[in-house]
Amino acid sequence: MSIAAPSTDVAPWWRRGVVYQVYIRSFADGSGDGTGDIAGLRSRLNYLAALGVDAIWITPWYPSPLHDGGYDVADYRDICARFGTLAEAESLIDEAHELGIKVLIDLVPNHTSVEHRWFQAALSAEPGSAERDRYIFRRGKGPDGSEPPSNWRSVFGGPAWSRVDDGDWYLHLFDVTQPDLNWENSEVTEEFLDIFAFWLDRGVDGMRVDVAHGLVKDLTFPDIVKSAEVLTSEQLANHPHWDRDGVHDIIRSWRSLLDRYDDRMMVAEAWVHPERLPLYLRPDEYHQSFNFDLLDTDWDASQFTATIESSAGAAADVGATTTWVLSNHDVMRHATRYGLPTATPWRRWLLDGPHDILDALLGARRARAAILLTLSLPGAAYLYQGEELGLPEVWDLPEDVLDDPTWVLSEHKVKGRDGCRVPIPWSSSGPSFGFGSAKPWLPQPAGFGAISVEAQDDDPSSMLNLYRTALALRKKWFTEDEDLEMFDVGSDVVAFTRGSGARCLLNMGDTPVCIDDVEGTVLLSSVRVETSIEGHLELPANAAVWLAPIRTDS
Ligand code: GLC
Prior knowledge:
- This protein is an alpha/beta fold and 554 residues long.
- The protein folds into three domains: 12-109 and 186-220 and 228-468, Alpha-Beta Barrel (TIM Barrel); 117-171, Oligo-1,6-glucosidase, domain 2; 479-548, Sandwich (Immunoglobulin-like), CATH 2.60.40.
- Helix content is 24%, strand content 14%.
- The chain contains 13 helices and 20 strands.
- It has helices at 38-43, 45-51, 86-98, 117-124, 186-201, 247-258, 301-317, 334-337, 346-352, 360-376, 405-409, 453-457, 463-477; strands at 2-3, 18-22, 55-58, 102-107, 137-138, 161-163, 169-171, 206-209, 265-268, 288-289, 323-325, 380-384, 484-486, 493-498, 503-507, 513-515, 521-525, 530-531, 537-539, 543-548.
- The strands form four sheets. It has an eight-stranded parallel beta sheet, covered by helices on one side. It has a six-stranded antiparallel beta sheet with strand order 1-13-14-15-20-17, covered by helices on one side.
- Strand 8, helix 6 (247-258) and strand 9 form a beta-alpha-beta unit.
- The longest helix is centred in the middle third of the chain and has 17 residues, at 301-317.
- It binds alpha-D-glucopyranose.
């Protein structure tokens, strides 16, 4: 396959940018209360600039009871006291800009926190009132209304409806503390336009929009017969609350607001079928959308190649670029995922194991190879904090520290997402490995010191330095255009050439592959590779290499 994207002379930064996700609770704690915050982030901006990222995306930092890590927002126009103040947020935006780093914030329009003033007003008001109409309240089924209005399930487990004292039920597709907003109510649509403007006026470069495939619901829909697993890219055709066509009108209204500002963007978190994703990327909708397909693809060359071709192709068809995501705050860290046997259902494995099937060294080796792949593909890349250190999933957190609502709502059947949210180790020693002066909100394993920033900083072979070098080389070799030409060098290898002539070869098999007639010099490799003057390249198992073309003009 070959994709020659329309040449864009001056591509906006986000088309080919690298965005670093800051899960603020776990990045760095400046105030000394055990929770990461804006002060901690400001103190590490130089680290991020030196890493070479183009932007940061900060997970929700608004006032919140933190029942879902801040995705339960109580006030969209302020900052959670645990994270800092609005003035500190403004300083952070300025300081990041001075270092050439763009700032994306996380907007959560599908639901608020129960502590939001609107929900509090709804609780004090009568059934059928204007206050209740901002949310989705309904009478229950059965003679006395004691059964939920439908059998919809919460993503985190349990029913998606909860009952209030006067008998009304409210919808919450996530935690019971996250009531869904009614996007057919004009007060809701106007409020969010105002919230967008509030942050754009403070200089943010864009928004990551949470649950972008939610918002619109069809309450007349009969019960869901087969409950489809959400947060996967399954086909969810005509689903009553995911990916409904009406969502696109809302997106267009946001886009026309953004277009009044210079150079701003929004990226969708839309877990929809790959065929439906391009709809979110039409010229008057999102600038970009996460593509979670690679994250769900097994470590297998033919499957990776298929995912790359379909994702890059679908985005190019609508004039967009795709995004490459290996990890985020909702999934098992890829250094661990790739250490599990192919097709292990990792969400279940977290709780049920068997845990001795994990090959952590293999996972780390594959993670090194995987980042060379994603950073050389056309489009944007989203990195999740700590992946540049090769952090593994902390799968053995004691049950009594688990904080993800999934753990309780699934009645302890799904362990949840805490294992990828453990605070970052900045130094090799000390009680929180440099995260902050207090005990961190989630415990770090003893082994974190050996893979801390300090431990890796001066080691040329460390994961951190692989990322730094790769990010610097990416700018030179892989961001000039969006051309992609796949080529075949055997069934275990994913191989392609980019417009610059530079190539990436990833051997996903368990044995080395000898490749003949290789022209070019090694720019970077995930493990040591040998090339011979006759043009043979021996590419070790589970390893990747970047090759620069031989110059013909000298
Ligand atoms: C998104 C977030 C996730 C959150 C959910 C509900 O999927 O990434 O962390 O729990 O939305 O807001």
